Structures are given as structure tokens and as C-alpha cells.
Write the C-alpha cells for this entry.
Amino acid sequence: MRDKKVRVLLAKPGLDGHDRGLKVLARGLRDAGMEVIYLGLRLTPEQIAEAALEEDVDVVGLSCLSGAHMVLFPKTVGLIREKGGGDILFIGGGIIPGKDIPGLEAAGITMVFGPGTPIGEITGFIKERVRRRGVDNQD
């Protein structure tokens, strides 16, 4: 087991300009002992992929409220996987219709957390999934 904090990169791909929820999540993940890199708004999948690989993160969390998640999330996952990020856990959030979740899962998004999901549920999910891969979170 590696002796390091879980590293999480949070980003908002596309033109969505609402990031309050992602900032709340970033705080919650930090409070849970994780190292969080928040990239900010209006990013391309290429920018997110480059940062995820440079930062050697364990988790990439993508948020989208604009309705472009079916394009932006799979593209981001694909770029990261193509460039060697095959062991990164991907989670998604935002306004995601339930009918879209199977397609996102097929594209590599392990879990989609909707509005109002308790932070503890998200942190618990990440810790459990990352622990399986040998990264222990130092609290």
C-alpha cells in the first residue's frame, strides 16, 4: 500500500460557469484528508487530461451543469486513458439525467453523484475505491 494522501483533481469541462457545488466538494474532500487540485472553470478535456497526468492524481472528478456531459466526460476520460492514466478513478457530478448514467459508466465514469449528495457519501466512495488500488488516505 502506498503511503500518501489520495490526490483528487476536480474540474469543470466546457462552458458551464457554475462551480459552487464543486468548491463545496473540494472543501469536503480536503476535510476528509484528501489532497485536492481544483482546476477551475471552462476547461477543455485536453487541459484536464494534461493536468491529471502531470499531477499524478488518483481520482478525477468532473462536474457539468450545461448538458454537455455526454460529450465532455467521455472525451476527458478517453484522453487520460490514452496518455497512460489507466488506473485513475473517474467520478462525475452536476445535472445528469438518469438515462445518461449508463452511457457515462460505459465511457469510464465509475459513479455519478447528483445534487444534494452528502459529502460523506462521496468521500466514503472515493476512499473505498482508491484503497482497493493500494492508496491509503492519511487522515
Observations:
- The two ends are 15 Å apart (CA to CA).
- The chain has a mean pLDDT of 92.
